[in-house]
Specification:
By secondary structure, this protein is mostly beta strands. Helices cover 7% and strands 43% of the residues. The protein contains one helix and 29 strands.
Length: 396
């Protein structure tokens, strides 16, 4: 009986197979059209940029829904074309070599994705291919917080990368990007962020409202000197995202209430100038706010600041307008009404500058002529969640 069943089942399967084969032969043409043929690609080619151009903007998206997979998007400001994208680790920071020969990304990974052994490093990328060319481990880790530009910076000659740490004591890791080696750790006594002032020195903001100046040698040994307080960190704190021009060392810090503090970083110790106020008569109720809220264009000597209508401690509210100031006269010369509430802005440093504005409600990049203030266009669909997105420029 079993044998008879087996024979019957085998015959049925054979019949089905032959029927299926016959049906397939009837449906598939004997000769496949050329347009239907697909080649097998065993290797994935990488597009190569000929050069990094001044109107390219690098949008660092911390990817708030899943922070372990942050991304950096590159957009051409002239055409609004998305040129490329690179994957990075948890809450990364980005820095450019002054000659645009390398991208440096401070990033963090775990061996099991969201758990396991933690690895902190500075990764070296080729800016023309986005391929990794090397890395240096950060044995003391790094400050894991929503991405801020002054968490990581290169010294003025581009030789050393400085990475800020807080765990909860504060320190700065020093990496020699030329020799690709970890130099050491500098204790910084409660001060935060890094603002380069020389080849082996930088300034930090301190809780008493002063700058500290930190110097170091090639062995990683450092010195720290305290400065005089110039703002009240309890009553009117400063935004850490200052508008700084690296070549000239000129910087502008904005306070929560709207005071501007000019700072000269061209010497070893920062020099703070007289403060002045953004709001004039009739501007009551307007305040600066957002994330990367200020930008400076050195060639026209113009300062751009995001402003919104709000009360005290609304400093994270996105900008309804971007106010433009002539710094020679300290007068407002333009108020740009933005299409989308602006959370971060940046201005290209060239002779034909573009102003970039990144939206708050949805991931959208808007582009303006930074001299005529004409709206050049917008591009939507970049990244996932805008708050926390940071705009980097090749010469920024």
């Amino acid at each position: 009986m079993r044998d008879r069943r087996r024979v019957g089942l085998a015959a049925l399967l054979a019949t089905l197979a032959l029927g299926g084969t016959a049906a397939a032969q009837q449906q598939v043409p004997a000769t496949m059209p050329e347009r239907a043929k697909l080649g097998t690609q065993e290797r994935h080619p990488t597009a190569t940029f000929q050069e990094v151009k001044p109107h390219w903007v690098y949008i660092l998206d911390p990817d708030s829904p899943h922070l372990i997979a942050s991304k950096i998007y590159v957009v051409d400001g002239d055409t609004l074309k998305l040129l490329g994208m690179m994957n990075t680790g948890y809450l990364p920071n980005l820095a450019f070599a002054p000659d645009k020969s390398a991208l440096y990304v401070a990033e963090t990974y775990w061996s099991r994705g969201t758990r396991g052994e933690r690895s902190d490093m500075v990764t070296f990328y080729d800016p023309k291919t986005f391929e990794v060319t090397g890395e240096v481990s950060l044995p003391r880790g790094r400050f894991l917080v929503e991405t801020k530009i002054p968490d990581v910076a290169l010294t003025t000659d581009g030789r050393y990368l400085l990475s800020y740490n807080m765990d909860p004591s504060t320190s700065v890791s020093v990496v020699d990007v030329k020799d690709r080696r970890y130099v050491g750790e500098l204790e910084t006594a409660g001060c935060g962020m890094v603002y380069p002032t020389g080849p082996t020195s930088f300034a930090m903001l301190c809780s008493d409202g002063s700058f500290a100046t930190v110097g170091f040698d090639l062995s990683g040994k450092g010195t720290i000197e305290s400065g005089q307080p110039f703002f009240n960190s309890d009553e009117d704190p400063l935004f850490e995202h200052a508008a700084v021009d690296r070549p000239s060392g000129r910087g502008y810090f904005v306070s929560y209430d709207g005071w501007v503090y000019p700072v000269d970083f061209s010497g070893r110790e920062p020099r703070v100038g007289d403060r002045w106020r953004l709001q004039g008569q009739g501007d009551e109720g307007w305040r600066p706010g957002g994330w990367e809220l200020a930008a400076y264009h050195a060639r026209t000597n113009r300062l751009f600041v995001q402003m919104h209508q709000g009360g005290r401690w609304t400093h994270k509210q996105a900008g309804e307008e971007i106010w433009v100031y002539d710094l020679a006269s300290r007068r407002q010369v333009r108020r740009i009404k933005v299409d989308e509430a602006s959370y971060s802005i940046a201005v290209t440093p060239d002779d034909s500058p573009l102003l970039f504005s990144f939206g708050d409600e949805k991931p959208a990049l808007s582009v303006y002529d930074a001299t005529t203030y004409e709206h050049k266009g917008s591009k939507e669909g970049i990244g996932d969640v805008p708050p926390g997105a940071v705009l980097y420029l090749p010469d920024g």
